[in-house]
Write a structure and sequence with these properties.
558 residues, alpha+beta, 6-stranded antiparallel sheet, 5-stranded parallel sheet, 11 helices
Length: 558
Amino acid sequence: MNKFYDFTFDPVNYPQVTFTKWVQSLQLMGKHWVPIVDCGIPNDSSYSVYTSGIASNVFIQSAYVQNTPTVGQVWPGNSVYPDWFNPATSTWWLNQLKSFQNTIPFSGLWLDMNEPSNFITGELGHTPPSIINNQTMPYTPGGAEYNDINTKTIDVASIHYSGILEYDAHSLFGSMEAAITNSYFTSTLKTRAFILTRSSFPGSGRVASKWTGDNYSSWSYLQYSITGIFDFGLYGMSHGGADICGFFGNTNEELCSRWMQLGTLYPFSRNHNSYTSIPQEPWAFGDTLLQTSNLSIRNRYSIFLYISTGMFMTSLNGGAFFRPTFFDYPNDFNLLNNATAHFMLGDSILVHPCIWPGVTGTDSYFPYDIYYDFFSGVFVQTNYDNNMYVNMPLPGVIPMHIRGGRIVPTLDSANSVLNLQSLRSSNITMVVALNGNLQAFGTIVFDDGVSANTISSNLYTQVQYNYNYFNATADVFVVNPLTTGYTRAAGEFPSISNIVIYGCAVGPQRIYKLAGGVLTPLNAYFLWDPYNGICRIYLGLYILPPDQPYQLIINYFN
């Protein structure tokens, strides 16, 4: 931005022509650029966004001066605020987005300061007191210690379209802004919207993602981030996250390393801090943070299909993907203690983050169930009170365990690609964690990742994977498409390359593919670790599509 004006460029640090070419080069590499937009529009008569808004009468009106916008102060100085209740505001706002898109291509929008925020109390020149304040109200939200409901926001006596008072509509500002912005991407660009909003309201999860706001670089705020994401999952905003390593204050290498481990598993994952804080990029401190960041980002890439499928199913069926462990084990009251010491990613992965300084491992609680180390496949053997010591090394990746009876896909190219576009060319390894009945199941949803209205238009393919006991000498791995609305592009997730089985009591000897009534032997390569009960089946010589119906019969005896 230039002088914090929306839809502008700093001519010195980010000259428009040079910066636009740089953004275009990012997009050629499969990366994206998402600019920030604040809701306060500077009342500058030389600024076209303001003058066009005045001409269309789209700003929230003053309660004190008729036919005049209410004025607050934010980053650009004296500012006015769009009135999302006014039908003309949608047209005006969409025109600003179109104009900016024609100047520089952007992939999403970050909507900040949209409570709406105000650096003063109420309207400029009329504070205090406001027409509406804690003396005129029967109840003051937050309690008596908050002197004025107008603190750090626009005057609640301000007037919206059709006479609606800000007092009655304040909480809707961010949600309405996000919905109108979302429509630009879905209706105009015909693409899936990425909208990141600070302010939200019930229902905002349909149109926007959420971050938990300005946090602090401290161990307590690392822990708070977990409950914050839990909370917003309850509110229907499952795609959320916190500022990794903290926003205010200065982080350190250990804290930032632990936060990178955790934060790369947030549904929305972003390292972000204040310009007044020290740098905290992955390379900012030393090898510990750099290696941990790389391992953690690669870990997220590895389980990308699991995360994207989990988020898709949340959109389809509701619920939360990043959630308290007691959601999955409601009868285990021990999980209510230290609820941030563990959490579930979907219904298959249990995570134990390190949320304390100076710790390289700790006794960690596990629900009464079968679990395996996600990375090594080692069976979890707890003591009498369901605790087991879990190593938490630095550098290293966050401890994760896969639940018995589940299948989780991982992507073979996770350690080499530089973006998700390249990751879509990866083959798939199926990690099968057997339960006590020697069974497991999992799901993948395939879509193009960018189209709008994927669910309502059925532009997706959902595949169910089952591993079952077949007979005394064999098990069977079943690929069962439930819907077929999406056809993978050429080279996109081309094949199931490996099957890794945790809890495997006998080493496999042969494998056959059964499709269309035809049984075909496959020349696979097998490894069996009898001590840990891990079987690995390498299928790289074959193209085994992940979304076509067939069965793999795994014979454990010649």
